[in-house]
Design goal:
- This protein is mainly α.
- Helix content is 69%, strand content 1%.
- It is built from 19 helices and two strands.
- Strands 1-2 form a two-stranded antiparallel sheet.
- Helix 2 packs across helix 7, helix 5 packs parallel to helix 15 and helix 9 crosses helix 10.
- The chain is globular.
- The chain starts with a helix and ends in a 7-residue tail after the last helix.
- 56% of the residues are buried.
């Protein structure tokens, strides 16, 4: 544990943050600021069918088709059910929207001060360019499985684009490991902790229920996963955004002071709020950037796996659609969570008494005592618990697909049933075991995944068109 913790602290406190920020800035400039098209990208994501882009059709299938690997490009029968660009986006959002948007922001503010909100937000703004680049390459080098469905991700990009099978296999192995960690056991544990603290439910019962529900969705493959995500993720996201907006309306008199406090804390050389939160420029940047990168995963490469499943013809079309995942995840939801927490800190500092670093959001939501005006007789804390539990469940579903495609790359389609069985079992295991070791291992795997993905992005940068 001490060794893992020391390695993670070294990587996430300096090298990785500088590397990913540098990559975000580079692709923002190299791709002529794709963030300026976010409004058009959101409209594109809501269209039922992608607009054909003849100039990109030749790039929709890998130009360097390999003869190796379990999934090969070539003429396959068309799939019976298509995965729309929005379906691919919903799968990616299911994997990224989760406890990081709430608990992650809470810990960033507790450890880095209110200024961490600004750094987290900037990470999302700049990270959209990297997400675009990842997803463009994911679609450009995607393949078809034996049933004719699109599959792809950084492992295919590395194999087909860089012709480096060992590095591609290494990335795929890390993705499987991360799926069992951040996508499975940690989310199951967060789910049981939330339900135990709020309603006193047994972790064993909740773990078994989560395993059954997730298993029923996984049986249908990507079609079932995308359908469920398309229906659940927008509703959950909009409900949480509505709850935050209701709180901000309640705190509206302090919003100006809240924004000014965040800006001052982001660049302050000293502590921001002694005794309650850390502070200062270095701490604010360190925790804000780290939590932002953790929640939106831009630079890790997993969003490209979801993007590659789309039947969009144009790589740039799907890249713009998938780029909106970072926008909703970090630019919108993390920012709203941060504003709610900091406004509550200013207006109700007494509510923070005895609250640990993960409880700042819960302390803020206690100021929303009743939602009866919306027909929801719930107090704010129960509303937040329901949101956390629902986000954890959708993350279980979304991440299962990421790991499944990596397992298929490594061992072929025959490995998929075995992977799903292990994944379902690990949901129950994660619900009932202590999680400190799992978190440390997951952080290390996520850090390691960045390097092969960034290598591919940089070396193939000329293939990416804005």
């Amino acid at each position: 544990m001490r060794l893992l913790s020391a390695i993670n602290q070294f990587l996430w406190n300096g090298p990785l943050l500088l590397l990913l920020l540098g990559v975000h800035l580079y692709f923002t400039i190299h791709l002529h600021i794709p963030q300026r098209h976010i409004g058009r990208a959101i409209r594109m994501s809501l269209r039922p069918e992608p607009a054909d882009s003849p100039e990109d059709k030749s790039a929709a299938i890998s130009p360097n088709a390999s003869s190796g690997g379990p999934a090969r490009s070539g003429k396959k029968s068309p799939p019976r059910h298509r995965v729309s660009p929005f379906g691919a986006l919903a799968t990616t959002l299911a994997a990224t929207l989760g406890t990081g948007n709430i608990i992650g922001v809470s810990t960033a503010i507790a450890l880095g001060g209110p200024g961490a909100v600004l750094w987290c937000w900037l990470t999302g703004v700049l990270g959209m360019a990297t997400a675009y680049a990842e997803c463009y390459l994911g679609v450009l080098y995607r393949q078809r499985d034996p049933e004719g469905h699109h599959i792809g991700g950084p492992m295919y990009v590395i194999r087909e684009g860089l012709h480096c099978k060992p590095l591609a296999g290494f990335y795929a192995l890390c993705t499987v490991t991360a799926a069992f960690g951040v996508g499975c056991t940690t989310q199951a544990n967060s789910l049981t902790q939330t339900t135990s603290l709020t309603w006193g439910l047994s972790p064993h019962l909740v773990g078994m229920a989560a395993a059954v529900v997730t298993g029923l969705v996984l049986i249908g493959g990507i079609r079932s996963i995308s359908r469920v995500c398309m229906r659940l993720v927008p509703v959950l996201g909009l409900l949480y955004i509505a709850g935050c907006l209701a709180l901000l309306w309640r705190f509206r008199g302090a919003l100006g002071a809240t924004c000014l406090y965040i800006l001052e804390s982001a660049f302050s050389p000293g502590a921001a709020l002694g005794g309650v939160a850390g502070g200062g420029l270095l701490l604010a940047a360190r925790y804000g950037i780290a939590r932002g990168l953790y929640t939106n995963e831009a630079g890790i490469g997993t969003s490209a796996i979801g993007a590659a499943s789309s039947d969009a013809v144009s790589p740039s079309y799907q890249a713009y659609v998938s780029m909106t995942a970072v926008f909703w995840d970090t630019v919108v939801m993390c920012l709203l969570t941060g504003l709610v927490i900091v406004a509550n800190m200013l207006l109700h500092p007494e509510s923070l008494a005895g609250v640990n670093e993960t409880g700042l959001a819960a302390a803020a939501f206690r100021s929303l005592p009743l939602l009866s005006s919306w027909g929801l007789p719930l107090d704010g804390e129960v509303f937040l618990s329901l949101s956390l539990a629902a986000f954890a469940l959708t993350t279980l579903i979304g991440w299962s697909y990421m790991g499944e495609k990596a397992a298929e790359y490594l061992w072929g389609p025959a490995a998929i049933p075995h992977y799903k069985l292990v994944y379902i079992v690990m949901i129950y295991v994660g619900a009932v075991i202590p999680m400190q070791l799992v978190w440390e291992c997951t952080d290390l795997v996520n850090a390691v995944m960045v390097f092969p993905n960034v290598i591919a992005l940089v070396l193939l940068r000329k293939k990416i068109r804005p």
